[in-house]
Design brief:
By secondary structure, the chain is an alpha/beta fold. The chain folds into three domains: 163 residues, 3-Layer(aba) Sandwich (Rossmann fold), CATH 3.40.50; 205 residues, Rossmann fold; 99 residues, GMP Synthetase, Chain A, domain 3 (2-Layer Sandwich). It is built from 18 helices and 24 strands. The strands form seven sheets. It has a six-stranded mixed sheet with strand order 6-5-3-4-7-8, sandwiched between helices. It has a four-stranded mixed sheet with strand order 2-1-10-9, sandwiched between helices.
Amino acid sequence: MYDSEVLANMGKYRARFSGNREAIYDYDNDKHYSYVDMDMRSDKLAWFLTKKLGLEKGDRIGFCATNAVAFFDAYYTTFKTGIIITTYNCLLRESELFALIENEAPSVMFYSAEFTFTILSLKEHGYEGECICLDIIGPEDQYWYGDIMDNKDYEPVTPPQLDYEDVQMLIHTGGTTGRPKAAMIPFRSIFYNAIIDCLYLNIKETDTAILTLPLFHTAGWNVLTLAALAAGGRVIIVRSFNPEKVLKIIRDERPTVGISVETMYKAMAMHPDFAQTDFTCYRFLLTGAAPTGKELLEIYWNKGVKMVNAYGMTEIGPNNMCHPIDIMCIDDVRAKWNSCGKPAPFNQLRFVDDNGNDVPQGEKGELLFQGKLLFKGYWNNPVATEEMFRDDGWVHSGDVGYLDEDGFCYIVGRKKNMFISGGENIFPQEIEDVIMTIPGIMEACIIGVPDIKWGEVGKALIVLAPGAKVAREEILKQVKEKLSTIKVPKYVTFMDCIPKNAAGKRNVCELRELFGQAKE
């Protein structure tokens, strides 16, 4: 009973303490919202969903939209109604997108005007729920979001009984192979993710974060954003990433913490406005989805900002590792550049071999997680859920790594992405980390390709920094000096960019299809 009351008032607690402080700045619409505003807006949305449409605890509402304040109206509404949020990447193929929607059956779909044709196609596909445009009233729509927020006749709703294990969100996995799955994220997981950021990254009332990542991805929600709101800080929303716009926001609004992906950081670093943008407002920057190379990190370190690689998965966090960033200087960050930090609290972490046995510290093993951050399984997918929790509740990450003598974690690769050369397991990340220490190399990706003698050998896909020249021989020499001969790539291919999916992760299937031949 007490837990239910705490959850029901989670948004109101912050409104009580920080009522008139700005919670959200909708940059593209130039609108500012206080914590009191967000409490009132979520009251209106809760009333509309339950009293007007008859939704109940456990029903789903979906978003096919670019980042907008409505996502956060819905977030606070979950505490008042128990209604579940599910967010969609509308850039998926329609067959993939509609399959996800059919499986999760949201009663309402909120959408941005730019996705109107997707929504019309969804209706033709048989979707019977309400479709509500966030921007203007769309064709055939019965309701418009602006009318919901203009309603003066609403009343606060009576919350249902809530439990920390109730599902608060469905967040789709951002993996690199196969169709995305809907991970069931309970109130408990979202709460502890925010607590980790507040306690160990020291997120507080004075912090401001720009939301550059999309809210169909777990990092958009659960890394810094919801923690900043829990702490009474400020979140700046942009509809979508634009390097010129973000650099201007940095100059004008002076954010203090941030997370983006390598592609975004690279786009900012290559923009003409980068040189005149002062980054010293930042306490730290995180880079996620995939490891960022030393060449790009160095550009930001030279601007005086502590940028570090982060690690996490939709199913296990994502705040599974933290750098003790406030007590690290730039030299400390440089020394641990390819580490993803130390295991965060509220996690139990093991490193195991192929037989499920724990390996000694310093030896490589698959990362297994247990604890307060875990998801509850996949929506309507008991087979995949059972596979994920197959070892007494321990979740297999599929990532292989180790802890160094200081307790910092290093990821050397995905089990599924490793290849076998001459009978030895080769993990691409270990080779990539070496290559990315070479000046002039912006990105490196290693894949295994067929070889008559060795079974498989490495192929290095290399992206150079603008104007840089690095010879093939220099790359091979560097790897040979640092690693065993079997790990030296046989082939090197230079390219303009490495394909990535919407979550900023490398598209492994596409890479193997395009470059999986035994040639340069």
